[in-house]
Amino acid sequence: DFLKADAKIFWAQLGLDSLEAKEILRDGGCDDIVMNRCIKREHTRLIEEA
Hints:
about 50 residues, two-stranded parallel sheet, 2 helices, elongated
């Protein structure tokens, strides 16, 4: 479904990581792949680093 969408970045939530999914996404033309990350935690980290 993601490859059919016009999305630019694939983001999988914390706890999800798959080499097979990464290969499928890359083969489908998606180069911006984020897995096993929490958006809230990443936002907090970036704010604290600024």
